Structure formats: structure tokens, C-alpha cells
Amino acid sequence: MKVLSLKQPFAELVVSGKKTIELRNWNTNFRGRFLVHASKIPNYEWMEKFGFSDLPVGKIVGVVELSSVKEYRSDLEHGADRYKHLADSSWGRYGFVLEDAKRIDGPSVNGKLNFWGLDYEI
Questions:
Q1: Is residue 122 over pLDDT 90?
Q2: Nearby residues of 26 by Cβ (< 8 Å), 6 or more positions away
Q3: In this predicted structure, what is the pLDDT of residue 88?
Q4: Are residues 97 and 22 in contact, defined by beta-carbon separation less than 8 angstroms?
Q5: Closest CA to 11 of 68, 70, 61
Q6: Cβ distance 34 to 49 under 8 Å?
Q7: Domain range annotation of the chain
Q8: 10: Cα separation from own chain's centroid
Q9: What is the pLDDT of residue 56?
């Protein structure tokens, strides 16, 4: 199954349904369900900003559907979706639109860049 690694607290925000667009600087043709991997090293600044002190890292934490990709062509467009991606335009101009997020207690694994494959069934 495809996997995407995200730093905490972003992995938590995705699997809890609070973050429904994941920003990236690269586009993808992939559509479908993928596993959410919480990277080993969290973003401590954003952990504090969102009020988290301890979240799982280095493991699969959820599954979500990538339904479409939005390309932001202006800061105005980007800002209109801020409540969905929770960041500013420096995080990326491609918004991976996410649906049907579910939390799972998956295995501990090392992450990788971009989408990557893992032999794991839900």
C-alpha cells in the first residue's frame, strides 16, 4: 500500500480529520487510499502551536483517501483554504485533498520521501 510520511503534529491533524488538505511543493497523479506515517522527528514548534506534547512517531498512524490535488495559483486562493491546510503558502502550492481519515495503530517503520510502498494490509 502507498504511504506518505508527515511530521507530527500534521500526521495527527490529518488522521483526526482537522487537516483535510496536505500541502506539498510537488504534484502527484496518485489518487486513492494511503497510509499516514508519523515521521520519527516531530516539528516541535508546531507541536507547541497546536498544544500537543506527546504524539506517536516512527509508525503508521492512519489511513486516508487522496481524492484530488488543488494547485494554488495565488496567495488569495491559498488563504481561502487556510482552515483546511492550516499553514501558509511557504508550505507548498499543491494541496492534496484528503477525505475519510481513520486512525489506526500500525507498525513502527522508517519513513521515506514522497509516496512510498509498504507491504501492509488494513
A1: no
A2: 92, 94, 114
A3: 86
A4: no
A5: 61
A6: no
A7: 2-112
A8: 6
A9: 97
> Is domain 2-112 given the CATH code 2.30.130.30 in the classification?
yes
User: Long-range CB contacts (< 8 A, 24+ apart) of 100-104?
Assistant: 100/64, 100/65, 101/14, 101/15, 101/16, 101/17, 101/20, 101/36, 101/62, 101/63, 101/64, 102/15, 102/62, 102/63, 102/64, 103/15, 103/16, 103/61, 103/62, 104/35, 104/60, 104/61, 104/62, 104/63
Distance (Å) of CA 38 to CA 74, 89, 100: 30, 22, 18
Quick one: which H or E segment has residue 84? helix 82-85
Mean of pLDDT values over 56-60: 98
Per residue in 73-119, pLDDT tens?
999 999 999 999 999 888 999 999 999 999 999 999 999 999 999 99
Q: pTM of this prediction?
A: 0.94
The total of other beta-carbon atoms located within 10 Å of residue 68's CB is 11
Phi, psi for residue 114 in degrees, rounded to 5: 65, -170
